UniProtKB/TrEMBL annotation:
<dbReference type="Pfam" id="PF00483">
    <property type="entry name" value="NTP_transferase"/>
</dbReference>
<dbReference type="GO" id="GO:0004475">
    <property type="term" value="F:mannose-1-phosphate guanylyltransferase (GTP) activity"/>
</dbReference>
<dbReference type="InterPro" id="IPR011051">
    <property type="entry name" value="RmlC_Cupin_sf"/>
</dbReference>
<dbReference type="GO" id="GO:0005525">
    <property type="term" value="F:GTP binding"/>
</dbReference>
<keyword id="KW-0548">Nucleotidyltransferase</keyword>
<keyword id="KW-0547">Nucleotide-binding</keyword>
<feature type="domain" description="Nucleotidyl transferase">
    <location>
        <begin position="1"/>
        <end position="184"/>
    </location>
</feature>
<feature type="domain" description="Mannose-6-phosphate isomerase type II C-terminal">
    <location>
        <begin position="249"/>
        <end position="361"/>
    </location>
</feature>
<feature type="domain" description="MannoseP isomerase/GMP-like beta-helix">
    <location>
        <begin position="196"/>
        <end position="245"/>
    </location>
</feature>
<dbReference type="Pfam" id="PF01050">
    <property type="entry name" value="MannoseP_isomer"/>
</dbReference>
<comment type="pathway">
    <text>Nucleotide-sugar biosynthesis; GDP-alpha-D-mannose biosynthesis; GDP-alpha-D-mannose from alpha-D-mannose 1-phosphate (GTP route): step 1/1.</text>
</comment>
<dbReference type="InterPro" id="IPR029044">
    <property type="entry name" value="Nucleotide-diphossugar_trans"/>
</dbReference>
<keyword id="KW-0808">Transferase</keyword>
<protein>
    <recommendedName>
        <fullName>mannose-1-phosphate guanylyltransferase</fullName>
        <ecNumber>2.7.7.13</ecNumber>
    </recommendedName>
</protein>
<dbReference type="InterPro" id="IPR005835">
    <property type="entry name" value="NTP_transferase_dom"/>
</dbReference>
<dbReference type="InterPro" id="IPR001538">
    <property type="entry name" value="Man6P_isomerase-2_C"/>
</dbReference>
<dbReference type="GO" id="GO:0000271">
    <property type="term" value="P:polysaccharide biosynthetic process"/>
</dbReference>
Amino acid sequence: MVLAADHVIAKENVFCNAIKKAVPIAENGNIVTFGIIPEYAETGYGYIERGALFSVNGNSTETGFYHVKNFVEKPDRLTAEKYISTGNYFWNSGMFMFKASVYLNELKKFRPDIYSVCEQVVSASYRDLDFIRIPEALFKDCPAESIDFAVMEKTEHCILCPIDIGWSDVGSWQSLWDISEKTDEGDVCKGDILTYNTKNNYIYSESALVAAVGVEDIVIVQTKDAILVSKKSDVQDVKKIVEMLKARDRTEYISHHEVFRPWGKFDSIDQGERYKVKKIIVKPGEGLSLRMHHHRSEHWIVLSGTAKVTLDDKTMLITANESIYIPLGATYSLENPGVIPLNLIEVSSGDYLGEDDIVRQKERYRKDN
């Protein structure tokens, strides 16, 4: 099964039954795609046009499956309405069932360039804790193509399974508003929100009070990284903002305040011209590799837990309400020897505070940067 991470399925039992019905068809060498019976003319989804009924041993009346006639991209409003009126089109859910060997054979047949690169990448991959790491330099050579274009539109083995499972693709703020619990005024409020004379808005706050007055059909999203304000009808154009960030060499689209590492995570709290403040959480039994910096010194203040610090040739334990100074150029490592998370505040100061100013003396993980 190939499933997306951003789908909501309300009728789980119906979906499970559809999967069970699809298994023998997939085991027989077919690629099953699950098409959603459309509820309205949606322009944000691709569509699948059904063909003739799919038959098993000459019996096509009981399977409920169809051959796929065509895949179509996201239509405009008028075209979507025409699709709905025919009864022959279904939303493309992006969910598939197939034997791995069948899909790989079809990929090798229709896109040998993608198959070849992926084969090299998998051969060069390695395991790192819970992750399988692939070499970025090799994978950059892989052409970018959707499964629909690469395989599904070309294969003769594609079979459609129409389903009505209370499906929603929560790939947009509009769709989140659609499926969320609302106030009497139609507002969806997540976080610390105050509203007055508002209607049909989606308002989300991660870390600050958000107040809205006299607005309607608006999406407001506050995170530690940025704030988004948009009409619901225009919110899919946020991708244009991402392109603007790239064009202006901004880093917000790839660099975030909260960053996860194999050993835990850190959250950038504040930053100035020559300083940066982070909250660091280290998981029990994990730690940061032995390292040093060329351009900054650091102060650590333990909030909770126990830190095992190696500083040059000395090793010591630092506990709550204690601190330690890491001079510029010193070699150090940090570990959590305890059974609860280690929480500490790190204050860095220096002429350059980038994450690439780390010289690792000994790797604890294959890749922890």
